[in-house]
Amino acid sequence: MLVCDDVVIRQDAFTLRAAWQVSAGDKVAVIGPSGAGKSTLLNAIAGFVPLSGGRLSWSGQDLGALDPGARPLTILFQDQNLFPHLTLAQNVALGLSPSLRLDRASRERVEAALERVGLGGLGARRPAQVSGGQASRTALARALLRQRPLLLLDEPFAALGPGLKTEMLSLVAEIVAETGATLLMVTHDPTDARHAADRVVFVDDGVADPPRPTDEVFAAPSPRLAAYLGTRP
Amino acid sequence: MKTHFIAAGLALTLTTGVVMADTPVLTVYTYDSFVADWGPGPAIETAFEARCGCDLQWVAAGDGAALLGRLRLEGARTGADVVLGLDTNLTDAAAKTGLFARHDLGAPSLDLPVGWDDDMFLPYDWGYFAFVHRADMAQVPGSFEELIALPDDVKIVIQDPRSSTPGLGLLLWVKAAYGDRAPEIWEGLAPHILTVTKGWSEAYGLFVEGEADMVLSYTTSPAYHLIAEGDPGYAAAAFEEGHYLQVEVAGAIASSDQLDLAQEFLRFMLTDAFQSVIPTTNWMYPAVTPEAGLPDGFETLIAPETALLYAPGEAAKMRDQALNEWLAALSR
Amino acid sequence: MAGRAEPLIRRGGGGIAAALCLALMAGPLLAVALRAGDSAGLGPGDWAAIRFTVTQAALSAVLSVALAVPAARALMRRRFPGRGLAITLLGAPFLLPTLVAVMGLLSVFGRNGLVSQGLAILGLPPLQIYGFHGVVLGHVFFNLPLVTRLLLQGWQGIPAERLRLSESLGFGPRETFRHLELPMLVRVVPGALLVVFLICTTSFAVALTLGGGPRATTVELAIYQAFRFDFDLGRAAMLAGVQVALCVAAVLALRLAPLPVGAGTGLDRNAVLRPPRGLPARLQDTVVIGLVLGFLLLPLGMLVVDGLPGLVLLPDTVWAAALRSLAVALGSVVVTLALAVPLAFRLAGARALWVEVAANLSIAVSPLVLGLGLFLIVLPLVDPRLMALPVTALVNALLSLPFVLRALVPAIHEVNAGYGRLAASLGMARADWLRHVVLPRVRGPLGFGAGLAAALSIGDLGVITLFADGARETLPLALFRLMGAYRLTEAAGAALVLLGLTLAVFWIFDRGGRGRAGL
Description:
The complex is a heterotrimer of chains A (233), B (332) and C (519).
Chain A: E1 2-11, E2 14-22, E3 27-31, H1 38-46, E4 53-58, E5 61-62, E6 73-76, H2 88-93, H3 104-116, H4 132-146, E7 150-154, H5 162-179, E8 182-186, H6 190-196, E9 199-204, E10 207-208, E11 212-213, H7 214-219, H8 223-229
Parallel strand pairs in A: 2-10, 3-8, 3-9, 6-7, 7-8
Antiparallel strand pairs in A: 1-2, 1-4, 4-5, 9-10, 9-11
Helix pairs in contact in A: 3-4, 4-5
Chain B: H1 2-16, E1 25-30, H2 32-35, H3 41-52, E2 55-60, H4 64-74, E3 82-87, H5 91-96, E4 122-134, H6 144-149, E5 156-159, H7 165-178, H8 182-189, E6 193-197, H9 200-208, E7 214-218, H10 221-229, E8 234-237, E9 243-252, H11 259-269, H12 272-275, H13 278-281, E10 285-286, E11 307-308, H14 312-330
Parallel strand pairs in B: 1-2, 1-3, 5-6, 5-7, 9-11
Antiparallel strand pairs in B: 3-9, 4-7, 4-8, 4-9, 4-10
Chain C: H1 14-35, H2 44-77, H3 83-89, H4 92-95, H5 98-109, H6 114-121, H7 132-156, H8 160-168, H9 173-201, H10 205-211, H11 219-229, H12 233-255, H13 279-311, H14 316-348, H15 353-364, H16 367-378, H17 388-425, H18 430-441, H19 443-459, H20 464-467, H21 475-484, H22 488-514
Helix pairs in contact in C: 1-12, 1-14, 1-15, 1-16, 2-7, 2-9, 2-13, 5-13, 7-9, 7-10, 9-12, 9-15, 9-17, 11-12, 12-15, 13-22, 14-17, 14-19, 14-21, 15-17, 17-18, 17-19, 19-22, 21-22
């Protein structure tokens, strides 16, 4: 269970508060107007933005003491998810061994992960030589290998076309189902939230609301959410 | 990593110096060009080692002034037994370091244009400063005043007295020849001075490249071109004021543990074996003319009638004022 | 929790390396000051020297950079046969010993140089190179190529994605300049100005020779005078202190400039700056490239022509000296990189004044005083002759540091900004991060820096003279000794060997760094 215990994030004049929890295995969409702090929230959980108050924990373990790499999570950023000078296989292998020292079994697991995301045989290519969708699949293959209980998506597929994005979200759903991971995904597209998430956190006006079931949220949006969605309550 | 690297450096340096356990080592500090392959160093080393049963090791430190600077930095800690390569413009300061011993040669017979009564430093060669030009130069000036009177596009290259021995020599030359009129001479020369270089090499290089019509060097410079290159195309201009003399000297270090050997070296310095090497390696006049006389070609050189030279103490007193006059005239 | 935002930047020995650099430069200065007896203090001549030094250095810096911008831009966006070679040769003037470079310069622009000879055929008077403008011309000759290389790296650092974006938006040359090139220049130019300014503050032989006389007295010449003419070590140390103050002031002045903003990172896709179409633009680039290459390469060509006859006359000792210089250069590279990498990390992170000063000081501090001080420190411990080569390697490493850092810091800054988070999220250890991410991504600047360090070290004459003896001469010293013994033909041959060796070493390292990407 991910617990945001009276979390306060301050950056210059900006403040974001969150006091809620997410159960293990939940699929949560984080939505809200741009600039509201969706990415900031994810980056705080991942360890890139310091907390000004409160405490974050996973399954009772305080995350504050952990370096980003040691936290029980994988995060996919909006961009820069791959090192351009490494091959796809090496980029994936980083999920198993950051020192890239791989035995035969590990190499096989890397190849299997690439196969799993539909990139079998492309391991020797470099990011610049593949399409955007294939690059996203590579990052997902790495997430698959890392097997962290929490997967954070900071709109990694925003740049892909609608068809491709849906494809990626399906792949995410499959991976989450296979690994039993808890998913937190930022999106600005309510359709994504409806398709991929069973709960929604709405971020606006300095507050990240507690997660509520997706159906409920869209059926009876709060006035602020309705304003964001552009619908009338 | 750094220790390895220093060790490698040490190994590299050690392999080039021969160290023999029982042989006494005579360390002679001198200037760069003396020890070069084509300089007098190698022949003199062979000749002296053949008779002394010792190992002569050269340490080269820039030019004469740098040599004195290094000696002053080292002070009593100096590793030198003999210092060879100072000139009379430096011996006053050198004597004041208190590092030098008196030589034991009394008053040796020398072939210098001037008398010699220094009981600390002994000369090994000498030469006149002179402006060297190509033999086909249209109007060769016969004095500083004639040079001044030439059209402004006749250019000379000189050296900076603050960083060069010949540069300082020229300063004293003008001062010795013209006394209080020196500033006026410098102002007259100023339009002819193409540029001032850090050292002799740069100036001579510019001259040979054809940048200037004349360069401050020595009356013996044409001998190099004639003898070593077979090129009679260079000459030195004879100035009627006379030419300033450079007398190069050596002295023994008093605190040396090889003082006897050092004195032996000084005695050797005035013998034929040393002196006969000088003319065609250091391109200067030997302090004692060898029995066989001077090499063919030296007779073509100009022989100034008047030799100008300040005594060491006077030179030391004179140079600050002379430098200020020089700076004032050329900084305008 | 604080500082997690930049988790991988600050760890490491940057502070230690900076402290070491400072100690290696302050130590000798202090040694000279402590050894000093009565001092006359700074006289009016010294103040005039300081004024002249600052004026010519500032002007030389501005002019070098101003000319390098169009040169680098034209070189970046045009492809022509021999372009790679030309870019390598750009390194040459900067890497050569000043004595040699001045000779090359004068053989073209001197009173009897190519240009004057051409003018004579037309019945015109020869060029007048000696004077204040000559000093600046000489310094531009040395530094224009260096700045051009630094700027080329800046241009290369503009991500292909950004270039494509600009093309898709239909940017003309003006818009491209404003939105892509100008922000890059704002980042690179201040550092380049600083480096050139500092190089010119320790100039001596070039300034004096081309300046035409004692009007062109620099601080370094005043230091020579203090040491050689007056043996006033106190004044020498004071003047070296002035050089330090100039360095600190210059670093401070540049801190007023806007903070560097990263160009951003891309996907390593190969893209080139699309050359603007049309005859005027093409003509302009051709003229710029032609002028710059002519200005830089003609003097080098003359060195080659002058040097060939001397090549066969060279005594064996010159070749031995060349090998010795090569060994010194390799030692220098090792020390340079050992200091530069941690320092670059430190500088890419937070801007600490003392670290910045430590990283730049070595080019501003008098080589003579540095040599004197090290000599005084070494003297009681070991025979200075044994330390000649190690000290030369060490000092040359310090001297190369600012140039290496100039290339390395922006690159490391970009790696940190672009991939620091990803690496942190993957839990990469420092060693893995260095090996798998940083080193591959900064290979270019690193190779450039190593090549620069090696080549500078081969060409340097500064410190060794005090330590040297008859036997262990380096190539520049051998060259200088040849010149000092009338052997001008052989000296020209040795200069050609030196030119070839520095360029070869520079090319090998630089090439190794550029790898597949190509420039």
